[in-house]
Specification:
Strand content of chain B: 5-15%
Number of helices of chain B: 12
Helix content of chain B: 40-55%
Number of helices of chain A: 16
Distance between the termini of chain B: 28 Å
Oligomer: heterodimer
Order of helices and strands of chain B: HEHEHHEHHEHEEHEHEHEHH
Strand order of the largest sheet of chain A: 3-4-14-9-10-13
Number of strands of chain A: 14
Distance between the termini of chain A: 53 Å
Number of domains of chain B: 1
CATH class of chain B: Alpha Beta
Structural class of chain B: alpha/beta
Shape of chain B: globular
Radius of gyration of chain A: 19 Å
Strand order of the largest sheet of chain B: 5-4-3-2-1-9-8-7-6
Order of helices and strands of chain A: EEHHEHEHEHEHHEHEHHEHEHEEHEHHEH
CATH topology of chain B: TIM Barrel
CATH architecture of chain B: Alpha-Beta Barrel
Number of strands of chain B: 9
Shape of chain A: globular
Largest interface: A-B, 37 and 47 residues
Radius of gyration of chain B: 17 Å
Helix content of chain A: 40-55%
CATH superfamily of chain B: Aldolase class I
Structural class of chain A: alpha/beta
Chain lengths: 403, 275
């Protein structure tokens, strides 16, 4: 990487963000990855691709999503002026659909006739099943057995949408294992299958293209805050598992040096326990799922299990561009525990009448910590990446309530 | 000449194909694996692939995934894998050993040993002759492949049905020892293609290289091994062997004896194939 005139110029032609990223895949997949890159480059240069994206974003997803001034929460915390970027109002209830629209349009351009995906919380699975239904393609979603148990509403949603949900019983039976199984399917059906990866991870060009498809979040936010406040925000906050909603919000602001940026990892029981999903706080660089990034692993390079009350953050790695932004210090990576997220989940529901996803509640937990200490003219935008309906069973269980 | 090159030269002189056997290091436990390893050459293995256990073997089917978990459950690691090789070399200085696995355990070992050169030096000293790293395609050659060549360790690449003529030269460029042709697009343990398709693929590869070509995926018995041995320089067997470990454990048999019995069948078949 050359001198940092810009934080937005990555990846290089080999898919590297600094020392992170790359294309660590089996030979069977390599020709396909190169083909995908070729098609994506062509699509980006084709105005009809953008026109198609815009059409589906507007009339199918319901974009632009509102930028909402969370007045009750701001007043309650007594500090910063807090805005929610309301990705939870998108069709399917989360930011995941943005990326799925982009990828299925690419799949169509490449002539692929079968869709696969991995999912943790089920939001990406639902979004993938949704676009597969819309475009008439068969869809298989891999989901860990543990996640299936804690995300029943989304499992049923996917089935209603016509997708086949395959339970993954290997390893920790969560998101990373679902990703392993999806890659095994992909290797086996490489000729006709498009793998819609749900986050800014995986082999190049996935981290880049998922980021590009999610950047609509930040681009809209920029225009909306200019309209409402006449200036850029002072800070941005988003939760981070693989990191796609965070990257989507952050990327258009990376070169605005006066905008402070904070991403919130899942600390589970606490980052000093052995039950968390804080890949940056407690991981070390390694290679998994096609890219070099920070990973939770032991001294022998064996991947250790992540833990979070939020299935969508329960992943032992993180997107390579985040690993790089952490390394160069442009984004500050912090964490919130299960307990803090649960408190934020309830507070947001009561004060704002918005039930946030447990994932997004991690971002809100950080907001609750820092906003009271900030001046009233500090403008903070937090990404409300998903809605929390899917989480009511998990939350009820954590609160000792029988549904 | 490396042990691998010497072995394939000898096989050529004998006018037969070789048998490459894959087992997972430390499966089901260190001691039993050491017995399996030491019994492989006499049972008919010409080259040994030793799988380095990893929690997330993305290109492997259920049999080898299970083998990885058995081994890890009993304390296996890359470090212990090198111990196995070192012990094996005390009594066998001719049979080539190729470590096969994923990059992350090697990367972690390297971090603790002053970089990949530290790992390569330790591997070579232990008696390792070659490496197959599933998730290091030619695009990532500077990670390990180029340092391995410099250290005198063969880097064996996989070619697959998706590796077309345009890409094959890139795959072959820094490959040494032999080329491993994965005969189907799929994970280990999957069904096999027919011999004609394999023969055509091997012929296609041979137009691009003089390297020996080993063929694997879907070889489960002597009959199938013999078919492959007629059209390739070596038949590679993995899943069927590690399944013998699970089967022996389930039936209360000795895993080493049960596995080596299959190696004998495969070895005899490969040796008789071209007669």
């Amino acid at each position: 990487m050359t001198a940092l005139n810009s934080y937005r110029s990555g990846p290089d032609e080999r898919g590297h963000f600094g020392k992170f990223g790359g294309r660590f895949v089996a030979e069977t997949l390599m020709p396909l990855i190169l083909d995908l890159e070729k098609h994506y480059t062509a699509a980006k240069a084709d105005p009809s691709f953008k026109a198609e994206m815009d059409y589906f974003f507007k009339d199918y997803v319901g974009r632009p999503s509102p930028l909402y001034y969370a007045e009750p929460l701001s007043k309650h915390l007594g500090g910063a002026k807090i805005y929610f970027k309301r990705e939870e109002l998108n069709h399917t209830g989360a930011h995941k659909i943005n990326n799925c629209i982009g990828q299925i349009l690419l799949a169509k351009r490449m002539g692929k006739t079968r869709i696969i995906a991995e999912t943790g919380a089920g939001q990406h699975g639902v979004a993938t099943a949704t676009v597969a239904a819309r475009f008439g393609l068969p869809c298989v979603v891999y989901m860990g057995e543990v996640d299936i148990a804690r995300q029943q509403p989304n499992v049923f949603r996917m089935k209603l949408l016509g997708a086949e949900v395959r339970s993954v019983v290997s390893g920790s039976r969560t998101l990373k294992d679902a990703m392993n199984e999806a890659m095994r399917d992909w290797v086996t059906n490489v000729h006709d299958t498009f793998y819609i990866i749900g986050t800014v991870a995986g082999p190049h060009p996935y981290p880049q293209l998922v980021r590009d498809f999610q950047s609509v979040i930040g681009e809209e936010t920029r225009a909306q805050i200019m309209e409402k406040e006449g200036r850029l925000p002072d800070s941005l906050v988003a939760c981070i598992g693989g990191g796609s909603n965070a990257m989507g919000l952050f990327h258009p602001f990376l070169d605005d040096k006066d905008v402070a940026i904070q991403a919130v990892e899942a600390a589970g029981d606490g980052i000093d326990t052995d039950k968390h999903a804080a890949s940056l706080a407690r991981g070390v660089p390694g290679v998994l799922h096609g890219n070099r990034t920070f990973l939770l692993q032991d001294a022998d390079g064996q991947i250790t299990e992540a833990h979070s009350i939020s299935a969508g953050l329960d992943y032992p790695g993180i997107g390579p561009e985040h690993a790089w932004l952490h390394d160069v210090g442009r984004v500050q990576y912090v964490s919130a525990t299960d307990k803090e997220a649960l408190e934020a989940f309830q507070l947001c529901s009561r004060l704002e009448g918005i039930i946030p996803a447990l994932e997004s509640a991690h971002a809100l937990a950080h907001v609750m910590r820092v906003a009271p200490k900030l001046p009233k003219d500090h403008i903070m935008v937090v990404c409300l990446s998903g809605r929390g309906d899917k989480d009511i069973y998990t939350v009820a269980n954590a609160l000792g309530v029988q549904l | 000449m490396s042990r691998i090159e010497k072995r394939f030269a000898d096989l050529k002189a004998e006018g037969r194909a070789g048998l490459v056997t894959f087992i997972t290091a430390g499966d089901p436990d260190h001691e039993t694996c050491a017995r399996i390893l030491s019994g492989l050459p006499a049972a008919g293995a010409d080259v040994i692939e030793l799988g380095v256990p990893f929690t997330d073997p993305m290109a492997d089917g259920p049999s080898i995934q299970a083998a990885n978990l058995r081994a890890l459950g009993n304390g296996a690691s890359l470090r212990r894998t090198l111990d196995l090789v070192r012990d094996f070399r005390k009594s066998d200085n001719a049979t080539p050993i190729v470590l096969m696995g994923y990059f992350n355990p090697i990367s972690a070992y390297a971090s603790a040993s002053g970089g990949v050169d530290g790992f390569l030096a330790d591997a070579k000293t232990a008696g390792v002759d070659g490496l197959i790293v599933v998730d290091l395609p030619p695009e990532e050659d500077d990670e390990l492949c180029l340092p391995a060549i410099k250290a005198g360790v063969n880097f064996i690449r996989l070619a697959t049905p998706t590796t077309d003529d345009a890409r094959l030269p890139a795959v072959l460029a820094n490959t040494s020892g032999f080329l491993y042709y994965v005969s189907i697009a799929g994970i280990t343990g999957a069904a096999a293609p027919d011999s004609n398709a394999v023969a055509a693929a091997v012929a296609r590869i041979k137009r691009h290289t003089d390297l020996p070509v080993g063929v694997g995926f879907g070889i489960r018995d002597g009959k199938r091994a013999a078919e492959i041995a007629r059209v390739a320089d070596a038949a590679v067997v993995g899943s069927a062997l590690v399944e013998r470990v699970a089967e022996a454990q389930a039936k209360g048999l000795d895993p080493a004896a049960h596995l080596l019995a299959l190696v004998r069948e495969l070895g005899d078949a490969v040796r008789a194939a071209r007669r």
